[in-house]
């Protein structure tokens, strides 16, 4: 029996129900529900042919063409579905919950699967995603100049039971000209949003959620506006870390990267760094003077951070000096410190 189900209800079901996305590989790559398996009814080219037939000839002709194109594929679909869901419990969706998901659901039901069809398809899921960013969260933002160890401390906060979202990990970028680390590939904007919504769904919105201070964009990906505005209004813990400590830490992190990659990334910030400093930074890279290179570019990144900090509500910025490399100790120090910070309501009373 085929059972229609709303996306919100499906997301609350047990994880033993696999999800099939029967859209084309191109649609799936552009954005999909995290955890979904792509079992495309049509190839990219086939979908174009069916869509063109639908518009130019009519619905019935498009359906017949669809069956012609998939006629020899059905046993393969079922075999693939069995590999994905050996317990024969499965959910299916396409773009709008129409013909493609309906056809796949019919075939799997005929074979004996317990089948759920996502009502409204991926389009409804995207509406649900945007709703997650409109919800209100108790955010706490961890700031500090480049090299302060913010990401590592965030993960230590998570290790001791705090809720945390690593936006840079979701965006696959560390938020600077060098942010791909010469190895990371960013997801599409749509997939970044899907992944963020998935993270938020797993957290308790009534409890504090830690995030790192970010600009609106992380690499080429943008934090959804409504969520970013909440980040800007939240209390920010501005970590104060000694410059030399930051230089040593960043030199260790970036020093092993390909020199051509570092030089190319430095060229991209030439206008902001200045021609002389850009030349000196690239010379330092080529001569393997990584700490000198870091000191030069930190002048720009520190200035950028201070500019961003100046645009925040000063009453919601709280400075905390930390020393050393014990990030677990830093996490506990931050929690003790934040327990003394008044909420916005208390600050107004």
Global outline = elongated
SS-based class: alpha/beta
Number of strands: 12
Question: What is the tally of helical segments?
Answer: 18
Query: From the 3D coordinates, which CATH architecture of the largest domain would you assign?
Result: 3-Layer(aba) Sandwich
- Unreliable runs: 345-349
CATH-assigned fold name of the largest domain: Rossmann fold
Number of domains: 2
**Sheet with the most strands, sense and barrel status:** 5 strands, parallel
Can you tell me the CATH class of the largest domain? Alpha Beta
Mean pLDDT: 94
Q: What's the alpha carbon Rg, rounded to whole Å? A: 25 Å
What series of H and E elements makes up the topology?
Answer: EHEHEHHHEHEHEHEHHEEEHEHHHHHEHH
Distance between the terminal alpha carbons, to the nearest Å?
A: 59 Å
Query: What is the beta-strand fraction?
Result: 5-15%
- Assembly type of the shown chains? single chain
Helix content: 40-55%
The strands making up the biggest β-sheet line up spatially as 1-5-4-2-3
Q: What do you see in this structure?
A:
The chain is an alpha/beta fold. The chain is built from 18 helices and twelve strands. α2 links the parallel β2 (18-21) and β3 (37-38). α8 packs across α17. Residues 345-349 have low confidence and may be disordered.
């Amino acid at each position: 029996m085929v059972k229609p189900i709303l996306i919100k209800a499906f997301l609350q079901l047990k994880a033993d129900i696999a999800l099939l996305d029967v859209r084309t590989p191109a649609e799936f790559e552009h954005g999909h529900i995290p955890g979904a398996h792509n079992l495309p009814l049509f190839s990219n080219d086939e979908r174009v042919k069916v869509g063109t037939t639908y518009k130019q000839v009519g619905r019935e002709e498009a359906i017949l063409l669809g069956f012609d194109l998939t006629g020899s594929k059905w046993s393969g679909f079922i075999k693939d579905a069995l590999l994905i869901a050996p317990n024969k419990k499965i959910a299916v969706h396409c773009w709008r919950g129409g013909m493609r998901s309906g056809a796949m659901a019919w075939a799997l039901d005929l074979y004996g699967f317990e089948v759920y069809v996502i009502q409204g398809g991926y389009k409804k899921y995207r509406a649900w995603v945007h709703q997650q960013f409109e919800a209100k969260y108790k955010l706490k933002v961890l700031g500090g100049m480049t090299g302060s160890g913010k990401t590592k401390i965030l993960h230590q906060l998570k290790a001791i039971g705090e809720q945390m979202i690593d936006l840079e990990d979701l965006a696959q970028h560390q938020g600077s000209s060098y942010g791909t680390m010469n190895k990371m590939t960013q997801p599409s904007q749509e997939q970044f949003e899907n992944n963020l919504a998935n993270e938020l769904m797993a957290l308790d919105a009534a409890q504090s959620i830690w995030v790192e201070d970010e600009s609106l964009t992380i690499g080429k990906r943008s934090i959804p506006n409504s969520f970013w505005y909440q980040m800007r209004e939240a209390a920010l813990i501005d970590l104060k870390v000694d410059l030399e400590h930051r230089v040593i830490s960043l030199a260790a992190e970036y020093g092993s990267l390909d020199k051509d990659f570092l030089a190319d990334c430095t060229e991209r910030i030439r206008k902001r760094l200045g021609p002389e400093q850009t030349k000196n930074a690239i010379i330092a890279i080529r001569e393997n003077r990584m700490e000198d290179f870091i000191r030069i570019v930190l002048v720009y990144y520190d200035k950028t951070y201070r500019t961003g900090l100046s645009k925040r509500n000063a009453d919601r910025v709280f400075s905390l000096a930390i020393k050393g490399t014990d990030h677990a100790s830093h996490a506990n120090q931050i929690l003790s410190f934040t327990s003394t910070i008044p909420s916005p309501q208390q600050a107004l009373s």
